[in-house]
């Protein structure tokens, strides 16, 4: 992926607008303050397209500025990816990663909030971990577990394929 600092590492992909309700700052703090997580993984923050922070809504601008300060000055996360713009040609790859995570059709592990729709996805596919979106340490621990235990990915893929193949193959 064009935005990865080291394309051979797993990518923790965050694709959302910088909305205060999304609790993006807690995710960034969890990643930035967990050295065992920073070493084996890339963090990609795709926070919408933007030209001028002054033209953004107050809430979104505040989140974006806070995230940028955290990444660049406070946590000093080494060369994270947070593109100002993504090209049209990037969209298929970005959405391919996001679609795999959302649909879990290929078994990638997901980390999601323990509230709302992700609970149903997890219950159906058992493909990752659910956490309290306000618990920074739980987020860091869960991300570290997911990126450092590759054996879980293979197990989840195999179990998903065995369970769901009869639904799609006659």
Automatic annotation (TrEMBL):
Keywords per UniProt: Glycosyltransferase, Transferase
InterPro entries attached to this UniProt entry: SPS (IPR044161)
A GO term for molecular function: glycosyltransferase activity
Glycosyltransferase in keyword set: yes
The protein, known as: Uncharacterized protein
